[in-house]
Amino acid sequence: xxxxxxVIHHSASSFNTTIDDINAWHKLKFNFPSSLGSHxxxxxxxxxxxxxxxxxxxxxxxxxxxxxxxxxGICLVGxxxxxxxxxxxxxxxYEIVEHLKKTYNISEVWGHRDCNKTECPGDNLYKYTKLFTxxxxxxxxxxxxxxxxxxx
Length: 152
Hints:
Helix content is 35%, strand content 14%. It is an alpha/beta fold and 152 residues long. It starts with a strand and ends in a 6-residue tail after the last helix.
């Protein structure tokens, strides 16, 4: 799989949720193990303290947003319909999204609700995912403006 999009999710669970909890839920729901041995459908999970778990290789198909091909799934632990993401989570999310965009030349960063009928990633996280779209647009505009003009 060649990654072309990043899809942001929330676990819709408490901040106390562990990676083992998510693995158990996804093993029951999907039973679709990754080459890393995880059953988590997301490629990465960010805990409230900012710790990042790699659950699938980036070039591996996930189980998080149908159709999954070409989409890297990143999940932040928490229910962002009722609470705000932690600063450590947002900092790690920004760091990993910028890394993935550069590594794979990705221009599209979506909230899960942008591609499937769901409330995910929750209203309080979705507002941040929309910033990635604006940042990407501004980056492209700046590159275009800084590109030297050639006289033909």
